[in-house]
Design brief:
Largest sheet: none
Radius of gyration: 32 Å
Number of domains: 3
Order of helices and strands: HHHHHHHHHHHHHHHHH
Number of helices: 17
Strand content: under 5%
Oligomer: single chain
CATH topology of the largest domain: MetI-like fold
Shape: flat
Number of strands: 0
Structural class: mainly alpha
Helix content: over 70%
CATH superfamily of the largest domain: MetI-like
């Protein structure tokens, strides 16, 4: 019998082509249009790199494949997302559109873990600092066993991680629980308080932005003029006035003195509440008369802050090189200011305004307390006073969510105002 000869090892070229076929099979991770457009070039580049790697031995080949797999996973996911984006927004976006889309997606993805970490911190802080049954323990008719039964009823005797998971799962589903003391659902109370606070805060912020931007822009364009001097002094005066003091002055003036001087039966602007007691239905005039004084209290300091930021930023932009270049090209001064200067001067204002708007969900505690306004600030103070953690927890999560969303909107506005940011 003749001896069996082992099969001859494949030639170098055949082995390279076999690995190229394996590499081509991985192209299915990419969208079809991408495979058709770039597949042949990528295979040719891979073939050249594989030849170079085989000279260095098996270790170099293994390192090449490791790098290829990592690159395929990352780039294929990106191209799949790009193909979805192209269909959803009506075709392929070029230049700034694609960069803007990637920028927004990046910011949204970053915001999700931040929100999750915030929920853990909020839960741990509230559960370790608030004892909802501390007041009951002072009652001699309440035994320790009664308190233990209540803790077992609300699940407070379980480990913290079990309590957190149960609370988070219910919160995400919209079940925010019931108040410990009123037994009312928490969600409607927070929703109504949030709506009232947003109405007051957004009106005050919009009014402050319009007035503050107008003052700041005109002061920058008329630097060291009489108007600029008055605006600067008024801004420092507005920043120096405490909110509670200004609110009390307005209440005394409109609620007492002006009513007596004009012999009115009711004040021109009401000093407390959201609507007149006994009123039925929605009355726009009545609601406006209740909102004017709180809006003025909130707007005084915000106008001062916004006008200073806009003035400083505008002065810096007016002396920049690209504005001198725009003027040298023959653009009119009005076009230079409106098209280039104003847009770039709004970036610092975007930061301040977004933080102010994001903080609105946390309530305007001092203003709402003085004017007895039923908003988020008043709800929080009442819940903390009673130790009602089932209201405090979702309240804090709503406030944190608004802050994160406001920062996300600010990041997007940065990219809109300055295209260089979206490519950073």
């Amino acid at each position: 019998m003749g001896t069996r000869r082992s099969p001859a090892p494949p030639s170098d070229g055949a082995e390279i082509e076999r690995q190229v076929r394996v590499y081509r099979s991985l192209f299915r991770l990419y969208p079809q249009g991408f495979r058709r457009r770039f597949g042949p070039e990528m295979a040719q580049v891979f073939r050249a790199r594989l030849r170079e790697a085989r000279v260095g031995g098996a270790t170099r080949v293994a390192m090449l494949w490791l790098w290829i797999v990592v690159d395929l996973v990352g780039s294929s996911a990106r191209e799949r997302l790009e193909s979805i984006r192209g269909v959803r927004f009506g075709g392929r976006m070029r230049g700034g559109g694609a960069g803007m889309f990637r920028y927004v997606i990046r910011r949204v993805v970053i915001s999700l873990p931040v929100l999750l970490i915030a929920s853990v911190v909020v839960f741990l802080v509230i559960r370790t600092t608030i004892d909802p049954f501390a007041g009951l323990a002072l009652n001699p008719r309440v035994s320790p066993k009664n308190i233990q039964d209540l803790q077992r009823l609300y699940g407070l005797d379980r480990p913290l991680y079990v309590q957190y998971w149960k609370w988070l799962s219910h919160f995400v589903q919209g079940d925010w629980g019931r108040s410990l003391f009123s037994n009312r659902p928490v969600c409607p109370d927070i929703r109504d308080a949030l709506a009232n606070t947003l109405v007051l805060g957004l009106i005050a912020t919009t009014f402050s932005l319009l007035v503050g931007m107008a003052i700041g822009l005109y002061s920058a364009l008329r630097q060291y003029s009489l108007f600029d001097t008055i605006a600067t002094g008024g801004a420092f005066f507005g920043l120096s006035i405490p909110n509670f003091w200004f609110a009390l002055l307005l209440q005394i003036f409109f609620g007492l003195y002006l009513t007596q001087w004009l012999h009115l039966s009711t004040p021109i602007f009401y000093t407390a509440g959201l609507y007149t007691p006994g009123a039925h239905g929605f009355d726009l005039i009545d609601r406006a008369r209740h909102l004017v004084l709180p809006v003025l209290v909130l707007a005084v300091q915000e106008i001062a802050v916004y006008s200073r930021y806009v003035r400083t930023s505008m002065l810096e932009v007016l002396h920049s090189d690209y504005l001198r270049t725009a003027r040298a090209k023959g653009l009119t001064e009005r076009r230079v200011i409106a098209r280039h200067a104003v847009r770039n001067s709004l970036i610092p204002l975007t930061t301040v305004a977004s933080l102010s708007i994001g903080a609105l969900a946390g309530g305007l505690i001092i203003t709402e307390a003085i004017f007895e306004y039923p908003g988020m600030g008043r709800l929080f103070v009442d819940a903390m006073r009673l130790g009602d953690y089932l209201i405090v927890l979702p309240w804090l999560m709503v406030a944190v969510t608004f802050v994160i969303l406001a920062n996300l909107v600010a990041d997007i506005l940065y990219a809109v105002l300055d295209p260089r940011i979206r490519y950073a």
